[in-house]
């Protein structure tokens, strides 16, 4: 694989991670939840073969309880 091809693959991985963050933000927003630190972890995107990680970040207790309520409701809806 050439350097250009590796760069294109790396850029594709980072774009996919950015798209995932956008989708998560939209989904959380629809549920009335904001995760202020939600982002692509920049360190995981470094190097010639990045493995992007999504950093969900920290949240306060109210947000954690709202997230768990949404997950519980989804779990019940699937059964």
**Widest beta sheet: strand line-up:** 1-2
State the major sheet.
Answer: 2 strands, antiparallel
The backbone outline, from C-alpha atoms, is elongated
Poorly predicted regions: none
From N to C, what is the helix and strand string?
HEEH
β-strand amount? 5-15%
**Distance between the ends:** 46 Å
- Count the DSSP helices: 2
What does this structure look like?
There is one protein chain. With 79 residues, this protein is mainly alpha-helical. It has one domain (3-78). Helices cover 58% and strands 5% of the residues. The protein contains two helices and two strands. It has helices at residues 3-30, 61-78; strands spanning 39-40, 54-55. Strands 1-2 form a two-stranded antiparallel sheet. The protein is elongated. The termini are far apart.
List the helices and strands and how they pair.
Blueprint: H1 3-30, E1 39-40, E2 54-55, H2 61-78
Antiparallel strand pairs: 1-2
Q: What keyword list fits this structure?
A:
two-stranded antiparallel sheet, mainly alpha, 2 helices, 79 residues, 58% helix
Describe, in short, the structure shown.
The chain has helices spanning 3-30, 61-78; strands at 39-40, 54-55. It is mainly alpha-helical and 79 residues long.
């Amino acid at each position: 694989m050439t350097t250009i091809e590796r760069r294109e693959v790396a850029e594709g991985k980072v774009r996919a991670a950015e798209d995932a963050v956008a989708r998560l933000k939209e989904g959380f927003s629809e549920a009335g939840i904001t995760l202020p630190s939600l982002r692509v972890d920049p360190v995981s995107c470094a190097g010639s073969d990045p493995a992007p990680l999504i950093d969900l970040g920290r949240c306060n207790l109210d947000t954690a309880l709202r997230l768990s309520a949404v997950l519980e409701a989804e779990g019940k809806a699937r059964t």
